[in-house]
Amino acid sequence: MTVSSGEICLSVSLSEQEAWDLAQFLKRAGFADFRSNAVDDEEAYRMIVAAEKLKSNLAAIGYSPR
């Protein structure tokens, strides 16, 4: 995987249950959840972008709850 300057690549080991639970959380989390943990709207939106990347990667390996 090529990583652009200013980006990082994460690798994490999760159990199947942890992967499923994280996918469920990411499915259910909305703007209010991120905003309540952010300093401002901009940070909340950046958190959402990062969460969507995790969600997409989980879906790519079969963890995509409906």
Textual characterization of the structure:
- The protein is mainly α.
- The protein contains three helices and no strands.
- The protein starts with 15 loop residues before the first helix and ends in a 6-residue tail after the last helix.
- The mean pLDDT is 95.
What is this structure's SSE topology?
Blueprint: H1 16-28, H2 31-35, H3 41-60
Q: Could you write a compact summary of the structure shown?
A:
The chain has helices at 16-28, 31-35, 41-60. With 66 residues, it is mainly alpha-helical.
Computed CA radius of gyration, to the nearest angstrom? 13 Å
Provide the residue-averaged pLDDT.
95
* Major sheet attributes: none
Instruction: Give the end-to-end Cα distance, rounded to a whole number of Å.
Output: 28 Å
What gross morphology would you assign?
Answer: flat
How many individual helices? 3
List the helices and strands in order.
Answer: HHH
* Beta strand %: under 5%
- Indicate the low-confidence ranges by residue numbers: none
Keywords:
66 residues; mainly alpha; 3 helices; 58% helix; 0% strand
